Amino acid sequence: MNLEFGRLALVLLFAIIPVVGIALGINSPGLRARIPLLVAFFAGAIPIISLYVPKKFLSGPTGMSPRLDQWLIIVYAFAILLGVVNVLQNSTRKIARRESGWPFSIVLLVGLFATGGAGIYGAVSRHGITSLPDGTATPFKWIQDQFFQPLQSTIFALLAFFMASAAFRAFRARNTEATILLFAGGLVMAGRVPLLEFLAAPFPPLQPAAAGASQALGKLTEWIMDTPNGAAQSGIIIGAALGASSMAIRVILGIERGYLGLGRGE
How many angstroms separate the most distant Cα atoms in the chain? Predict the structure, then answer.
């Protein structure tokens, strides 16, 4: 009974009511706009309620919340399809109009079709996307190894220069906060590498003292990362969680309607 009730409730909330609302909303734009709000409300409320109401039809293995999570996989698939269609439309439009950067759009489309075709081939041939029965790489794996990973390494290598430039601009003792940041950053960087031992290498009598100082500096670095830095990270995570919770509540209650392309009063 619980299983049937949960299944029927999901079908009613996410299939019958939206279809009926769309049919009735053909001549009523206001009603047609309220149906997505109703669907968003139940899609957000059901998982939250299932955490606090220990009922099988809500949080059981075949309850409403786990089944809704399975349905979301189908939504993700359609979202990926819409993303592919969007990329195709924007890229073909840019190529047809010869807009700035249109050769890169050609490369993007070639990569999209080559990678997608290789993945579909692996699924149809039942060989997967990693390796063939003889141990050789599949077309998808070959594209990943020969193109994607080198490009990824190149991007990360370029990011290192941007991070160094940003650190140089940030580590300027313009005020008290920047001075503290500069001092703490210097200690952490010095504690992560055997700097003192390297400097004391030409002087053997100083090497034991340098090794002890390096260990003490390493402990200080760990304390900085665990205590002040950990407290700051906790504050940022709590703030982000509160912001995400408030946005979720606004979406569930229908206050935030930006995803519908509607204003607050529509």
Answer: 91
State the total domains in the chain. 2
137: helix, coil or strand? strand
Does 265 score more than 60 pLDDT?
Answer: no
Domain presence at residue 60:
yes
Report the alpha-carbon distance of residue 103 to residue 111 in Å, rounded. Answer: 13
225 within a domain of the structure (yes/no): no
166 within some domain: yes
Residues paired with residue 137 on neighbouring β-strands, in sequence order: 131
- For 45-91, the pLDDT digits (tens) are 888 888 888 887 787 777 788 888 888 888 888 888 899 999 999 99
Domain-terminating residue out of 40, 75, 110: 75
Which residue has tokens 């220069």?
A: 161
**Backbone region of residue 54 per phi and psi (left: phi > 0; alpha: psi in -120 to 50; beta: other values):** beta
Q: CA–CA separation, 55 vs 53, rounded Å?
A: 6
Q: Which domain holds residue 31?
A: 1-75
Cα distances from 70 to residues 64, 79, 235, in angstroms, run: 10, 15, 33
Where among 120, 144, 170 does a domain terminate? Answer: 170
The span from the CA of 253 to the CA of 169, in Å, is 43
Q: Token pair of 168, please? A: 């140089």
pLDDT at 263 over 60: no
Identify the band that residue 108 occupies on the pLDDT scale cut at 50, 70 and 90: very high
Dihedral sign computed on CA atoms, order 142, 147, 148, 150: positive
